[in-house]
Write a structure and sequence with these properties.
Layout lengths: L5 E6 L3 E6 L8 E6 L1 H11 L4 E8 L2 H12 L2 E2 L3 E4 L5 E8 L2 E7 L15 H5 L1 E7 H5 L2 H16 L3 E5 L9 H12 L4 E2 L3 H8 L4 H10 L5 E4 L5 E4 L4 E4 L12 H14 L4 H14 L13 H9 L3
Parallel strand pairs: 1-4, 1-9, 2-7, 4-5, 4-6, 9-10, 10-11
Antiparallel strand pairs: 2-3, 7-8, 12-13, 13-14
């Protein structure tokens, strides 16, 4: 078999972002970019991966700006379709006492019109890792089918499956989300749930019980992201917690996506899951030190510098 040309390919929805600043004017929003799988693949590219993205964007200014973003970040764009009949999604981030909150304009977006028959299967088969999320599946029935087809093609080609449960109950009911996510956990090589997601999905409060349930659903490797509580890694035999790093947090948008990208990069570099999680934990902390999902995504020297403080 020939050497793979792409390290990480992600599938899902990208959007443009308007992020509320915390200055004197609460009506001031910074323009940026987001979408969980797009954030992940950009994080992976910044950390040294050969990366590609699979999605659809509108034939509009926002879609064009996203294409320019991916190209500037070194993300392969030949798997991206242009939809002349549907818009690129938009979301807003506001900040309050309970943290960051999201508002979306994504119904009927170009990405939600992804279909299995439109997938760039050669690109997917030519990668080392395929990353998808619960949001990739939730945006529409056809997008969910496209993710299933992508996973099937990837597994047949020996491509590893990275899966972030990323539960958004505004997009689909819990019963359907639970059914689809559980089925996907059985197909992945590693699962990357957040603690809040997992509590809802598995109806358990205890971290250990959540991890056990995730393994029970079929995920051989589980990395439970616990926000300010760091992360817990389990390969079914060994379980280890990594504490969160103390940084000056500005905006946590996209931190989990950054973790996902960094984890994949380090697994592909030969790290064991525990070393990969330690690195990803530091990368995710740095992603909280600026506004927006993309702008603060770190590069290797910054991650290494933060890790060096612990040695």
């Amino acid at each position: 078999m020939s050497a793979k040309q792409i390290d990480v390919v992600a599938i899902g929805e990208a959007m443009v972002e308007f992020n509320q600043t915390r200055g004197e004017n609460p009506h001031h929003y910074l323009f940026g970019y987001g979408g969980d799988t797009s954030n992940m693949v950009i994080a992976a590219a910044r950390l040294g991966a050969r990366a590609a993205y699979v999605t659809r964007v509108g034939s509009d200014t926002f879609g064009q700006r996203l294409l320019e973003l991916w190209r500037s970040e070194g993300v392969e764009t030949r798997g991206i379709g242009i939809d002349a009949e549907a818009p690129t999604g938009v979301y807003f981030v506001s900040h309050g006492p309970s943290g960051h909150e999201f508002s979306y304009l994504r119904a009927g977006s170009a990405a939600s019109r992804m279909r299995p028959e439109d997938l760039p299967l050669d690109l997917i088969r030519d990668s080392r890792v395929l990353h998808a999320s619960g949001i990739s599946q939730a945006i529409s029935v056809s997008a969910c089918d496209a993710v299933s087809a992508a996973i099937a093609a990837a597994r047949a080609a020996g491509v590893k499956i990275s899966y972030d449960t990323n539960l958004r109950l505004k997009l689909w009911p819990l019963a359907r989300a639970r059914a689809v996510i559980m089925a996907t956990l059985a197909l992945c090589d590693w699962a990357l749930p957040s603690l809040d997601d997992a509590k809802l999905l598995f109806e358990r409060e205890d971290e250990g019980a959540v991890i056990d349930a995730c393994h029970g659903a079929g995920a051989p490797l589980v990395v439970l992201r616990c926000g300010a509580g760091g992360c817990v890694v389990s390969d079914g035999r060994r379980r280890e917690r990594f504490a969160a790093h103390r940084v000056d947090v500005v905006d946590a948008t996209g931190a989990g996506d950054c973790f996902d990208g960094a984890f994949a990069v380090r697994i592909l570099a030969g790290d064991d899951p525990f070393a990969a999680a330690r690195y990803a934990n530091a990368a995710a902390a740095l992603a909280t030190t600026g506004y927006g999902a993309v702008a603060p995504l770190p590069r290797p020297p910054a991650v290494e510098a933060l890790l060096a403080k612990l040695r």
